[in-house]
Amino acid sequence: MGDARTHVRRRRLVPWAVVGLWLAALVLVGPLAGKFSEVQQNRAVDYLPDSADSTQVARIQDELPGGESTDLVLVYHRDGGLTAADRQTAAAQVAEVEGAYDLTDTPRGVPSADGGTLMYPVSSTEPGQDEEARNAFVDGVRGIADGTGGLSVEVGGPGALGTDMGKVFETIDGTLLLATLGVVTVLLVLIYRSPFLWLVPLAVAGVAAALAMAAGYGMHELLDVTITGQSGGIMTVLVLGAGTDYALLLVSRYREELRRHERPYDAMRAALRGCGPAILASSGTVAAGLLCLLAADLNSSSGMGPVGMVGVLAALVAMTTLLPAILVLLGRRVFWPLIPAFGSAPKARRSLFAAMGTSAARRPAAVLAGGAALLGALALGTLNLSGDLKQEDSFTDRPESITAMETLAEEYPERSSSPLTVMAPTDRADAVLRKARTTEGVADATAGRSGAGWTEISVFATAAPETAGETRTIEALRDGLDDHGAHVGGLSAQQLDLADSESRDRKVIVPLVLAAVFVILVVLLRSLVAPLLLLAAVVAVWGAALGIGGLVFEPLLGFTGTDPGLGLLSFVFLVALGVDYGIFLMHRMREESLNGAEPEAAALTALRTTGGVIASAGVVLAATFAVLTTLPLVPLVELGFVIAVGVLLDTFLVRTYLVTTASVLLRRRMWWPGRLSRAAEPVPRERQPEPV
Q: How far is the C-alpha of 503 from the C-alpha of 403, rounded, in Å?
């Protein structure tokens, strides 16, 4: 009797205690979560490894008198040619800028050959490294530089580009969070068909997002982890997408257990025992894949690994503790109007996935071959992917800094409008300057500030920024100046170093991710064949998703380049997230086989019982990543598109048809070399597992 009363008290107290602990945690982490956006770093140099030449230039610039400079170009243009009044207006406005700010030098106008454009390079060390001060400086100059009566005035240059990029990233967190919450809300209402139930996982996902942001801020402060606007946005998507997936699995199982158990507390315990291992393995796979990014050379990629990991783990902890506690406290009524009564049987209905699985099993070899051929054909679209994305093409809506860059490229074809920056030891500065001026592809070079043993030299290439010609000039400068101890940086050099680092990271990270995921699958499934099948499937999905991107990005969306990091990041996310659904399916398939089902029956039963939940989870995850396509940055649009398409391919083609038909064809060989592959009869077990 005493044990019964103790059990009743536990059922009442445990959920309240869990909710209380989470409320206390929110009070503690709330202020830290609010600081997450403050520590995001979005300069191009913040993405680069410390060993890159352009990073060394940026570091040395910080040590020069005045620190880092903010470089702008004021562009005055009139179709048909500038008038005398236009030149007077330009001179007066530039003089006003010089009077309002502490400039490193008096700006001098450079007219274009046809007389239609006049540009004034403007540089100031007054803002330093403070982002707010830099933005205020750029906005102040833009407020002074104003054109009327057909005279167009644009403020461009590296400083203006950085400000425009920063303003986009400032809006990402809030926009992305609201858009993702809206998408998830609509999908949960449709899936649960309840006016109340959708609120619970959505609220818990919001709590998980706050926890992840606080943890991300803590990692930056304690471990100096690089956090960018890109990694912060992706973390938000991961928390809401993965968290909602875990909620769908748990709630689906909880609904089943409520028909078998009278008390919600007991039903939730059974649900957690049943699907908990699969959720743990799923989140562990994603976390392991993301942690492989720590080996990346790029600071942005290596920082995204732990940032994404804490997002997944925050979703896991919230969905396996707070969500169950709230559901237990709310009881069965949270499912209204479709309340699962104790002892009732679920409404019988024809399963779409059962029909799909049965049709696939009739001719498994043909279905498998056809599906593989389709994925291979789609992967050929990667041949249509454009070259590396230029900074000027990184915005879907072109800001003023980009239009200024385009005007300069058209009006000054004989020289680049964006200088390369060479840092030379002061005692060798004259020799470096002479060498730079005689380097092929260099239009001009001028010496600037000196300090801390270094001299800054601005080098103007004859080729336009981020073209093959300018790349050759950068490489020639680095080869020719290496013996002088000089470093070559600047915006274009940074983009070149980014592309080189991305290429190196792909060669290192891809094998690491495959190895890490393979080991986890082997431990979970106790087989070598099944993990290899799942990995082959997700790699094929990745290739097909990239191929679809190649058919869409330039022909339909008009993108003129592909972000260098697209291949690596999409691979990490599609492999880690795609294997999740494979785990749910294969884990159930293995359980059915252990219970004595024949291979074909085990495969079809697993598809029938998990297909609906996997489909719902896949749609939610794809939709959350698709939200990235609404942002004004091409790299995020491309990444969101590829991952969303890949998740849908994985959910409705690979899991439903290809993995199922391969399992039917391989039969017990699927579980080689485990004992299940050798068993002619059902393997005896003391206790059969709960279904997932």
A: 30
* Helix (H) / strand (E) containing 124: strand 117-124
How much is the average pLDDT of 412-431? 84
β partners of residue 421: 458, 489
Q: pLDDT class for 352, splitting at 50, 70, 90?
A: low
The edge-to-edge listing of strands for the beta sheet with 152-156 is: 110-111, 117-124, 70-77, 152-156
Q: List 445's β-bridge partners, or say none.
A: 459
How many whole angstroms separate alpha carbon 54 and alpha carbon 61?
A: 11
Beta-bridge mates of residue 451: 454
DSSP of 296-356: -SSHHHHHHHHHHHHHHHHHHHIIIIIHHHHHHHH-GGGGTTS---TT--PPP---HHHHH
Task: Please report, for the chain, how many H helices and E strands are present, in that order.
Answer: 23, 8
Per-residue pLDDT, averaged over 302-321, amounts to 91
- Predicted confidence band at 45 (pLDDT cuts at 50, 70, 90)? low
Residue 321 CB-density burial (10 A; 0-12 exposed, 13-18 middle, 19+ buried)? middle
What number of other Cβ atoms are within 10 A of residue 680's Cβ? Answer: 5
Count of beta carbons in the 10 Å neighbourhood of residue 39? 15
Residue 136 CA to residue 431 CA, distance in Å, equals: 38
> What is the chain's percent helix, strand, coil content, to nearest 5?
70, 10, 25
Q: What is the dihedral of CA 668, 660, 193, 648, to 10 degrees?
A: 140
Mean pLDDT across 447-464: 86
Q: Cβ(84)–Cβ(91) under 8 Å?
A: no
pLDDT band at 367 (very low <50, low <70, confident <90, very high): confident
- Per-residue confidence band for 1, with pLDDT thresholds at 50, 70 and 90: very low
pLDDT band at 55 (very low <50, low <70, confident <90, very high): confident
Does the pTM of the predicted model rise above 0.70?
Answer: yes
> Each residue of 549-597: pLDDT tens digit?
999 999 988 888 888 888 888 998 888 887 877 777 777 777 777 777 7
Cα–Cα distances (Å) from 663 to 181, 449, 658, in that order, read: 37, 68, 8
How far apart CA 41 and CA 50 sit, in angstroms, is 15
User: What pLDDT shows up at residue 439?
Assistant: 92
Report the alpha-carbon distance of residue 59 to residue 68 in Å, rounded: 9
How far is it, in rounded angstroms, from Cα 145 to Cα 156?
A: 11
Which pLDDT score, from 0 to 100, does residue 204 have?
93
Q: How confident is the model at residue 475 (pLDDT cuts 50, 70, 90)?
A: very high
691 secondary structure, DSSP code: P
Question: In Å, what is the CA distance from 231 to each residue of 92, 169, 238, 301, 354?
Answer: 43, 11, 10, 8, 39
Query: What is the rounded radius of gyration, in angstroms, for the C-alpha atoms of the chain?
Result: 29
Alpha-carbon span 320 to 313, nearest angstrom: 11
C-alpha separations of 466 from 159, 348, 471, 500, 634 in Å:
17, 62, 7, 14, 17
Summarize the confidence of residues 184-207 as an average pLDDT: 85
What is the distance between the alpha carbons of residues 366 and 358, in angstroms, rounded to a whole number? 14
**Which amino acid is present at 286?**
V
Q: Report the Cα–Cα distance between both ends of the chain, in Å, rounded.
A: 34
